Amino acid sequence: MELSYHEICRIYRMLGIDHQDRVFRGAQRYMSGPDDIVRTEAAEVIVDLAKSGNGPLYIAAMGCVTNIAAALLMAPDIIRDIVVVWTSAYPSHAPHSVRPSLNLVQDIQASRLMFDSGVPLVYLPGYHVGAQLKISRPEMEAHVRGRGPIGDCLWQLYDQNPLHRMFALTGTERRTWVIWDMIDIAWLINPDWVPTFLTTSPILTDDLHWRKDAGRHLIREAHDVQRDEIFLHFYDKLAGLQDPRPRIR
What we know:
By secondary structure, the protein is α/β, with parallel strands linked by helices.
């Protein structure tokens, strides 16, 4: 958590934005049971914003949902005032075990709460859906590198991806890389880029499979992405950050 906090602050600095009162520390552990409240600064901010009266609070979750679960347990009434947009796992009708999804399995209790509580949920499956958001090295070179400090940072992360070394991948110059979490923001910018449908909220079983029940409440679930439209918008945003300095070699 602490590493993520400081990385987010670093990103803000590269964008020239003050991170004060914008970035908050989250959970340092996962829930130990369905009623375990992991109190965090982030959870308190969620509660305060939800109760601000400024309309529904949309929460884009790009990892474990411990902080959101804590906020719901701390103040159950905010369920009327928030919408959770979360990417993880497989489509709710898929027969696969959801174990490969780190966003979900690292905190089973919090994940189950998202599907059981009735909180308004926009569920954006990572596998098969978000996994379509792939970018190649030529695209990174042409549209990301040299686009301001943030563009160069993203290029360096791509060019020196530690996961390539971890998995001993070869031919990385010809491989694409999945940028899963863009799907949350893409849906918030333009829901047409991430087509969804209404379906009953799945039950997450003890053996980490989905089970459907026709009597359950509804959630909104993505079934596709408009990959090109999302990346074109991303490139256009970066183009506005063009850095006159020579590109990093």
